[in-house]
Amino acid sequence: MGNVLVYVENSETGVAPIAFELLGAARRLAAGLGGEVEALVAAGATAELAPALGAADVILRMEHPALSPYLPEAHVAALTEAIRSRDPQVVLVGNTSAGIDVAAGAAAATQRPLVAYCTGLAVDGEAVVAHSQVYGGKLVATTRTEGPGVFTVVAGAFPGAEGQSGGKAAEATLAAPATLGSLHTRFIAATAPSGGIDIGRADRLVSVGRGIGGPENLELAQELAAALGAELGASRPVVDSGWLPKARQVGKSGMTVKPKLYVAVGISGAPEHLEGMREAELILAVNSDANAPIFEVAHFGSTCDLFDLLPALTERLQAS
Amino acid sequence: MHIAVVVKQVPDLVEELEVDAAGTGLDRAWVKMKLNEFDDHALEQAVLLKEAGGAQVSVVALDGEGIDQVLYAAVARGADRALKVDAGTQEPLDSRRAATALAGAIRDLGPDLVLTGVQAADDLFGQMAPFLAAELGWPHVSVVSQVEVAGAAVRVQQEYAGGRMATLEVDLPAVIGVQAAPQPPRYVPVSRLRQAMASGALETATAGAGAGTGGAAVTQLAKPEAGRGAEMLTGSPDQVAEKIEALLRERGLLRG
User: Fold this and answer.
1) Which residues in chain A are closer than 8 Å to B247, comparing Cβ atoms?
2) CATH domain A4-181 topology
């Protein structure tokens, strides 16, 4: 009998949405393993967070001032402590910024294997079979984990609804590890997104990726955006290259958007990007690589050279 | 301040990727390799720190095909030393095994700060930075977009979903997983690269013993199953533009 432990990411705004997706996935795994779902909520104060976690069988509350605001070192120690004391077979952590810190750190400390980027999880006998997106989403790896393991799960891979339902879970208090009193990491300040533009509010977006080639070509996308009445967005490589400001980044470490229209130009569609825009109502993708993962989530696509298609489309829209 | 930058090569995702005959790994015969883009940013961040306040920068990589070129390019970019660690194989190691293999050499090098890319396209079994931190017993922060020295610590910007960020202070020595440097990685003129190669100053070290944790094994590597997929619009650019315009008109999405 193996239990499933869910690491509940949280911030001053409450329980992170990914936690409900993990709880939903955990319910199915626990059913297959004949075990229970335990939810670890580690924070400065957990009383207001715990009630949301009714989909778990047991809520493990760990409180310490060093656990809020989030510090990687503190949360690695918290999850490590929970794994050691509860000995679950499966540990689920979101593949978020915090998840990258916490999952690998706790897996190393507890000598458990880690399987990252999971989009599918199933029980086969006593093993866990996972599907993971690798190579920018171009390939899917299937792994089999016999015995205990830690899995990081991509946001959006499991529906959050199953993890939000549920009744009243039992609660237990876990003592915070003593190391939280002598950390080598300190919280200095939170920073809000800057740049004066909130692309999350735009109902039409034209987003550019690496395929645009260079900043000198951004004008083509800007003109199309203007003709559509859209805001300009970007994938991470474009922002990291300094071609557009961070405030315009769509995806995992940028904004999650849900516009009526999303035009993806020269974006291959790495999982981190898809995470931020797959819920858009109409997705139109232009990419010369017919195998680009963006076409998996797009409703309509074209492999036309963007340097030909964009001016043609802009001209047509301006005339109409 | 001594900064070690850990780098590796990954398959160039712009190229077509093929699975090997066993169906569990990449067919590496035709794969074009390139420096992991996040490691590229980690190197840029290190060089920026060197320029800002003076630092010695050592670039470290596991030995493997084409790695000399990567190390020379890092020297040309501003690294002072380049260290190639021999793990007894030319095959790429997963990041956990790589962290175990590199930890001893890094400890011997004795840096104050280790910077490496936040992730890599092939790190199925987890990311290098947190594993390396665990091996070294040092604090760690990943998904970092800015590093500044603050006495015996560094101040880093960690990024979260929704564009939120926090500034954290981490005592040295520490390991940082770099998402992006404050400015894009600089271009290396070929003349500088030739100069670095002519100097020929690659140091070597032997990897420490030890292996990663077993228990998880790849049973299949495959292209994703075709999902619902996009309806492809075909024709000349003009014809495709016409179809798109019609689609947008139907849905009331033309600029009103």
Assistant:
1) 282, 284, 300
2) Rossmann fold (3.40.50)
Give the homologous superfamily in CATH for domain A199-319. TPP-binding domain (3.40.50.1220)
Q: What is the CATH architecture of B2-206? A: 3-Layer(aba) Sandwich (3.40)
- In this complex, which of B165, B217, B232 lies closest to A301 when CB atoms are compared? B232
Given its phi and psi angles, is residue A205 left (phi above 0), alpha (psi -120 to 50 degrees) or beta? Answer: beta
Establish if A14 touches chain B: CB-CB under 8 angstroms.
Answer: no
Among the partner-chain residues B143, B223, B253, the one whose CB lies closest to the CB of A253 is B143
Among B90, B88, B47, smallest CA distance to B67 is for: B90
pLDDT band at B237 (very low <50, low <70, confident <90, very high): very high
Per-residue pLDDT tens for A273-313? 998 999 899 999 999 998 889 998 999 999 999 999 999 99
CATH 3.40.50.620 in chain A, residue ranges: 4-181
10 Å CB burial of residue B130 (0-12, 13-18, 19+) is: buried
Collect all residues of chain A within an 8 Å Cβ-Cβ radius of residue B232. 290, 295, 300-303
Locate the domains of chain B by residue range.
2-206
Count of positions (residues) in chain B: 256
Give ranges for CATH 3.40.50.1220 in chain A: 199-319
Which residues in B lie closer than 8 A to residue A96 (C-beta atoms)?
A: 160-161
Establish whether this prediction's ipTM goes over 0.85: yes
